[in-house]
Amino acid sequence: MSLETVRPSPGYEDILPIEYRDLIKHGQYGREVKVSEMGKFKELVEEHPMCAGCAMTLFIRLTMMALPNPEHTINVGTAGCGRLAISQANIPFIYGNYGDTNSVASGLKRGLELRFPNQVKDVVVMAGDGGLIDIGFQGLMHSWFRKERFTTIMLDNEVYGNTGGQESGMTMQGRVLKMAPRGKLVEKIDAMGLAKTAGCAYIARIAPTNPARVLRTVRRAILIAREIGPTYIQAYTSCNIEYAIPTPEVMQDAFDVEKERYGFEEIMTEDAKAYITEIEKKQKELAKSKAKK
Amino acid sequence: MSESTQTKEEWVPKGDLQEVKDPEWLFHEAPRKTEFITGSEAAREAIRRANVDIAISYPITPQSETMQQAGYLYDEGYIKEYYRGEEEIGVMSAIGGSSRAGVRSLTATSGPGLMRGLEAISSWPGARTPLVLMNMCRVINTPLAIQPDNIEISFLLNTGILHAHAENQQDFFDYSLAAFMVSEEVDVTLPAVVSVDGFFVTHARGQVSMFDEKYKLPPRDGWRSAVPAMDNENPPARISRDAPIQKSNFISYHMHASWQQEVFAAVERSAKYWRKYLGDLIEVVNPDAEEFIVSSGACVSQAREAVRQEGEKGRNVGLIKIKTIRPWPKLELVAALKNAKRILVPEFNQAGWLHKELCSTLYGQISAEIVPGPRVYGGMTMPTEMVLEWLEEGRK
After folding, report:
1. Tens digit of each residue's pLDDT (9 = 90 or more) over B115-142
2. A217 inside 8 A of chain B by CB
3. pLDDT bracket for residue B235 (50, 70, 90)
4. Distance between the two ends of chain B, CA-based, in angstroms?
5. CB of A120 within 8 Å of any CB in chain B?
6. Looking at the structure, do residues A62 and A27 belong to the same domain, yes or no?
7. What is the ipTM of this complex?
8. Can you give the CATH number for the domain in which B76 is found?
9. Residue among A104, A135, A163 with most chain B CBs within 10 A, to mutate
10. For labelling, which of A161, A242, B26, B194 has a CA lying 20 to 30 Å from the CA of B144?
């Protein structure tokens, strides 16, 4: 979809819903938005049925803002809380079967590369910890081993939130949850380590405590996936319902968990680093020259 | 310069050298040459001429040979993209992904592989993903066996997938090519399975008449589809075709119901396109007979021989070969069998899915006895004598 496709044909603008017109006039198409602009532009995702105070929702909003080319992006997800918001975005969303995200994304990305050889189409998998590390484990790992060029974002709330609070592979050891009546017996799976072993070009662990950093991380992951190889972001997005975090304390929990065991970590291969450094250097120069004008 | 010394820049994909031709011309008018080849080779030759964009493979006997041949076709440049997936859930999901991208997509599997990938496979029609799955039928475990048996077809009957059942190597060539074209028609936009009985057809040789390999089918046009490809080439809207139902409510029930109705209506609409390429959906031999054999797949060949031997004895036994299981040729069957007195339904499976289908179609329509058999399964072959014995039994 080029920006020309997004823009209404002359004469038709008036009959389109105001939502659509706002999206075109005041949205993020064709420009890079900043966190400081939140509330001042039409976001790709606004209304959603997520729980009040959900940290995952904040992270998804920030991720959508970070998309470097939303008019050429396709999101892939699976069952889980996140899809309730992701599917409400103005981005095509494939809601597949349980745990099929990275397999679907592999075929989709390769198909899009065949069909649009002169237009990069970004494929972004956004799914929960259960969807990726449990039921989707095989597809996840093999997409990395095959060096598929798309980004995988794990919305890690450390629980099966959507099905009512069962333990997942990403739940911390000892936590008492449904299906873990005596506390989880084994350790949280080291998905970061697995991503490293599988050779992901860019790996990041993040909590949504610093919105600007979320935007930068997501952009980096998507840009590197275009040219270098698979990228993985693991985001702590607490479930305030299943972990009984009072709504006003959701962000404090994010800060606490970040400090305790979920600190920001960024790992990238040498070629990924060289590539992203070059891009960001050019972007800075461009911004400077614009500022001068 | 030999191919091995060509540089990457000099290499020309062989698919680029093929000429696109009108599929109806290819099916009905193009000169054909006959070769004595296996079913797997017939599949390879169909794939070579099918203008396939992407093929995703995973090995399972007796299918493996076909998808490794597809690998060689990729190497030669007849297929644009190819890889071995992680296993069948991954492969069937991935091929659904590539079809959503709007490119012509192919995969293949057999019995247990089909069962493993069934969650993904059964979601293809709802996602309106045109693609072709070649299915080389095989026993479903357990006990472990790799022999032919087509019980797996019964698991696909109510999925909304188009389904043709090839009798022999020739059918496998023709049906596979037709499947691509039918599947991608705008008012169809559905996946298609072409099943063939493993080993009996895949690993045995037969005469296959084929149009020249310098021709190929027209490419898939990703813009022509009942639903948009997931390519972000359409104006944005806050609804995803893949997730129309977010939470249970009255509207969502209706959406899901109407979506299903549309899928199954599309299966029926596909009949006219199958007819365009394959002629009628059934083949009728000795239409004026009172004794009939109705079958599909390789079983038809044994039935044909039984009909021939009965003919030598001066007995007129009819035969109906069902080419497409979905769309199911209900009206054709009722018309062809209206004067039948006794109908045998030989099958290569224990469940007798074809017999059940036939009974539900003919119930209340005709007064013939519809005999549940003969059947062989677990890898057995069906001797013609068995069909003859069952015919004789009915005459006592």
Report:
1. 999 999 999 999 999 999 999 999 997 8
2. no
3. low
4. 72
5. no
6. no
7. 0.94
8. 3.40.50.970
9. A104
10. B194
